Amino acid sequence: MFRNTIKSFTSNIIRPSLITRQLPLRTVQRCSGPVFVRSYAGFPSLTRDLAKERIIELLEGYDKVSTKNGITEDSSFINDLGLDSLDVVEVVMELEHEFNIQIPDNEADGLKTVGQTIDYILSQPDAC
Amino acid sequence: MSQILPFTEANSKRVASLFRRALRTAYDHSMKFEAYRNTTIAVRQQFEANKHISDPTELEIAIKKTEEKLAEWKHPDPYIPPSRPGGTKFERNIPVKGKVIEEDW
Question: What is the CATH number of domain A48-123?
Answer without folding.
Answer: 1.10.1200.10
